[in-house]
Amino acid sequence: MDSGVFFSTYRADMALRNRPLEKVRMALFVAFVLVFPFVASPYWLNLANTIAIYTVGALGLNILVGYTGQISLGQGAFMAVGAYGAGLLTRDIGFPFLPSLLLASLITAAVGVVFGLPSLRLKGLYLAVATLAAQQVVEWLITHTPITGGTQALILPSPTLFGLSLRGDFRFYWVALLCASMAALYSANLFRSRVGRAFVAIRDQDIAASAIGVSVFKYKLIAFATSSFFVGMSGALLAHWRTIVTYERFTLIDASIPFLAMVIIGGLGSISGSFFGATFMVLLPAMITTFGRSLQSTAPWAAALLPAVQQGVFGVVVILFLVLEPEGLAKLWRNIKDYFHVWPFSY
Amino acid sequence: MDVFLQLTVAGLSNGMVYALVAVGFVIIYKASDVINFAQGEFLLLGGYLAFAFIVQFGMPWSLGVVATLITAVGVGLLVERLVLRPLIGEPIISMIMVTIGLSSVLKALVNGIWGPRPRPFPEFIPSHRIEVAGATLGVDRLITIAIAAVLLVSLSLFFRYTRDGIAMRAIADDQQAALSMGISIKRVLAVAWAMAAVSAAVAGIVLANFMDVRHDISAVGLRVFPVVILGGLDSIPGAIVGGAFIGLLEAYTGGYVGHGLNLVVPYLVLLAVLMVRPYGLFGKEVIERV
After folding, report:
1. Is A215 helix (H, G, I), strand (E, B) or coil?
2. Residue A52: which CATH number?
């Protein structure tokens, strides 16, 4: 029974997980994700892949928005760059899966730096509007240039890794899982390093940060690059998994806003929050759809309302979280953990 | 020359719709520093409410319009009370996201009540065409410009002469000072949201008159960003000038250049303005201190 968190060695202080209970929880979670694909139905496996890929994207966005405080409405544009990058590299140049994934992520990181340039002059609201405009420009470019195929879908061959086919949800699950865990581990360590601390300093007060010797110019660009790398990776994964790329997936309404909702509902500036947010935003619409389908026979009029209900529930959930728990699911989870950690002496 | 005149009238009338929506946007931003992503959905709701009152309830159009505007006031007040007031003092991202959530709820409401099909809007604004200097102009376009001009001028007068208007300017200038002079911020915020909803509803009615009542008219909510950034986020004359400019720019690029370039040009202007002069043509430059 603990009364708080105390460290007596540097090793304990540096560990990502140090309390026994934390280690047990982590082990249980790892066991769950490893066993999951063997027992899950195809439907759930599909959802799990989506969650894993969205987690990568949400982590990327969280690095930028939650940790560095640069509001971005251009998530969809970055994902589109990653997806179309991977798609074109594979289809037109014949890159294998892994190089195309990495190169597409790197290209997105480079594009992210370009997008990040306005952030050196703009902040807060104005940056949000600038990224909104950039999103619109990228959407327009994709639908109006011949190499992306415009509004036509881009179809790529199913991915293989070291001669092994990754076709199908079961096989791709492991790739998506690996990417998500590496992204999470990388982010968790990033914010224990000099660079990550600089991001947080810029978020909290950029002028003060520059006064204590943080190069705001440099670190904002690094933040944009790191963030877009992961966002691009999530786009590229999506492209390889679905083997089809259409611009509709990456619009403001269908990508930028849901991802922003993910990091807010999950918890800004929280690694586990990115995962919670992605899980929540994938499962909620899926549950509503399932529920609506079950009503199809008994109450068809209710099933017809489904799209409206989806939209309405999304809005209501976002508003409720912002009003009632602005720090999101990660904070709720932390409250539960803290409660049991010091139970029954919670003072 | 006749093409030019036609494009000018079309652009200016669209621009005036933008200006109406933008003015609501600016009023809210001035009063509370909130950037309202749901402005386009207020417009959408205005169009559908007018359709409901005039067509579905069979009211005469004048009464229907009045009923629409009164309902819009109610919606504005309700939104301010339920959604925005609990968030006073929260960071910008919460404010942005909450209005995005709001826009989603309003869209769902419209979608749920009226369904996804476009509906024909009752024609009470005459839409026959007249010949002026060789150009064929729609009378509805000219009337729209006139309606918007009257409304925008009366709004400017409101800010100059009425008690609430002056209180609003005082709050925009310095909230603390305004509070200590006995101005009720709650009241001013409520008035601001009501006015924004009304101006958007008027825009919705005139826009629905051009292109039926349908869901994509809410896209105007995003077209407003170039307008307000160009004019300055906190300037009402800026919103009017910006609206006219962006409307004309779209019409001319659509008419003379084509290739769908008119869809993206406003955003390029936006980016250019942000790079060169972030506070816009008439906006107030903010100097930040730690």
Report:
1. coil
2. 1.10.3470
Structural domain contains residue A247: yes
A16 lies in some domain: no
Count Cβ atoms within 10 A of the Cβ of residue B252 and give its class: 0-12 exposed, 13-18 middle, 19 or more buried.
middle
Chain B (201-260) residues lying within 8 Å, Cβ to Cβ, of chain A? 222, 225-226, 229, 233, 259-260
A307–B94 C-beta distance less than 8 A: no
Tokens of A97: 């899966």
The partner residues of B129 in beta bridges, in order of sequence, read B138
Tell me how far CA of residue A246 lies from CA of A243, A337, B128, in angstroms.
10, 41, 42
Cα angle at B242 between B40 and B268, to 5 degrees?
80
What distance in Å separates residue B267's CA from the closest CA in chain A? 5
Is A286 within 8 Å of chain B by CB? no
- The Cβ of residue A18 has, within 10 Å, a number of other Cβ atoms equal to 14
For chain A, the domain total comes to: 1
Q: At what angle do helices B2-32 and B139-161 cross, to 10 degrees?
A: 30
Q: What is the pLDDT of residues B29-61, one digit of tens each?
A: 888 878 888 999 999 999 899 888 888 888 888
- The predicted model scores a pTM of 0.89
